[in-house]
Amino acid sequence: MLGVTILGNNSAIPAHGRHPTAQIISTQDDLLLFDCGEGTQIQILNYKIRRSRINHIFISHLHGDHYFGLIGLLSSFALLNRVQPLHVYGPAALQGLLDQQFQLSEIHIPFPYHFHAIEKDGLLLETPNYIVSCFSTKHRIECRGFIIRQKKRNRKILKNRADSRDIPFNLYALLQEGKDVTLENGTVIKNEEVTIASPPPKSYAFTADTLFDPSLIEQIQGVDLLYHEATYPHALADKASARFHSTTKEAAEIAKRAGVKKLLIGHFSAKFDDTSAFEEEAKEVFPYSEAAIEGTTYLV
Amino acid sequence: MLGVTILGNNSAIPAHGRHPTAQIISTQDDLLLFDCGEGTQIQILNYKIRRSRINHIFISHLHGDHYFGLIGLLSSFALLNRVQPLHVYGPAALQGLLDQQFQLSEIHIPFPYHFHAIEKDGLLLETPNYIVSCFSTKHRIECRGFIIRQKKRNRKILKNRADSRDIPFNLYALLQEGKDVTLENGTVIKNEEVTIASPPPKSYAFTADTLFDPSLIEQIQGVDLLYHEATYPHALADKASARFHSTTKEAAEIAKRAGVKKLLIGHFSAKFDDTSAFEEEAKEVFPYSEAAIEGTTYLV
């Protein structure tokens, strides 16, 4: 299972009830947070996210609409006497800024807190079940997108069938790896007789803020779900590129060329109240496009 | 006219739909903002406050629930190409923190921006119509409350009556000051024949975060409206004092002894969903008490 809950789908200035960027990634083990615009902790309450389960926070870049909510969230974790470890990944300069605010506001972090400065593209986090890595995007300041890929999971043993064949427990590991096994009496058990495949591993990519940039395609090739910013309608392509942002059709073009299964667009300009036209434009280029809606969880 | 619109009535951790401290003071000329917790700019949108009219922001202290929303608000002002001057008053350390965020997040302030470090109690701002001053409260860190007092306004000339007595325009200023005037023909015009008093000047005090502290009484004596924090019900008086906060009855005791006309309590602990019991407790000590409600404008 992999889920993406949109807490904020707006660009820099909050407007029309929309909030700055933040999204919760639900894995089978824990919750990750991609970006943390102002008010993220309030959106976490609004959408009844179990905040204590968030244990990795990734910040794409230091424009305020992607991180101004982080200090408030950390502060609340401290006041709530959180005990679970927390890892924050972001541009190196963020660490000093947070430390300064901890000091000025007398925030004493009672839980194991680890800041990881993102200094290059590549692997950020590996757990038994998934990998998170990052890649550079083209924005006005240093900016990185994130991608989470579930690992291939072992085959599942069908307990009833395994028992009926008297398979001893010490052979289970081989079966989970997809191998056939031989019992002590010489009987060969074909793997597919007693196991089934686990669901295929899923992947989700978040491109943060970026110009239209075909070099991203290689990074996000074939992901199950792509969130690509589409700050402007395509008629404003010049404005988009001047501001290092993308349009609806540019986002869809990337999705199409990368062969992703589904595209979510977001980071909508505050100038536009209605986002349905954004969705329509994207669909003209890539039919599996959807305008992200706050509070919605997209299952990957 | 003086109005106080509550944008946040909660203490440190947002909860129950309540937000951290922020309030808009409406004067006849402009809007002031007292404190700016996270999400203030979103509350400003929710309650349709004309943000361009906010030209003075006062920050009581550097606990996050009183200032984490400031950088986002300033950032949005910048993105909106605000032109009106803006004055921010707060603890000296806030200036460096904001400057650092302006730099890291590439926020270019296009409007005249003035930071005023609050280093002592007393006058902060004087306009033709009102005065804002500050006073120290007893909190864990340096903290100041704010008080706005309208100036006494001149008497209003009743135009019809003045015309019927052939009073020349050059005598108006004397009449506005309450003086009698003598016409060229020697006729004496009694002031009250052609003028009426303007509404009496109003005053509002905000005590920010504080222990129960009778030395505040002198500062806020007789104000029309007092906002005093009441983080805890009175049964938790020990907890309140350990955390440098006040209870319902302590707030009401201050209001009563200071002879204020009305008390608003707020800064409610996140532990409590219902604030009506807070109001009841305060009323037992001071009947003109009310639990502050977000979005409500209290006319002074």
Question: Explain this structure to me?
Answer:
Two copies of one chain form a homodimer. By secondary structure, chain A is an alpha/beta fold. Chain A has ten helices and 18 strands. A seven-stranded mixed β-sheet of chain A has the order 6-5-4-3-2-1-18. A seven-stranded mixed β-sheet of chain A has the order 7-8-9-14-15-16-17. In chain A, helix 9 packs parallel to helix 10 (276-285). The longest helix of chain A has 13 residues, at 92-104. The first copy, chain A, is globular, with a radius of gyration of 22 Å.
Question: What is the strand arrangement across the widest sheet of chain A?
Answer: 6-5-4-3-2-1-18
The number of distinct helices of chain A, counting runs of at least 4 residues, comes to: 10
Elements of chain A, N to C (H/E): EEEHEHEHEEEEEHHEEHEEHEHHEHEE
Helix percent of chain A reads 25-40%
Strand content of chain A: 25-35%
What's the average pLDDT of chain A?
96
The shape of chain A is globular
- Main interface by residue count: A-B, 33 and 33 residues
N- and C-termini, Cα separation of chain A:
7 Å
Number of strands of chain A: 18
Which stretches of chain A are low in confidence, meaning pLDDT under 50 for 5 or more residues running?
none
* Rounded Rg of chain A: 22 Å
The oligomeric state is homodimer
Taking the sheet with the most strands of chain A, its summary is:
7 strands, mixed
Structural class of chain A: alpha/beta
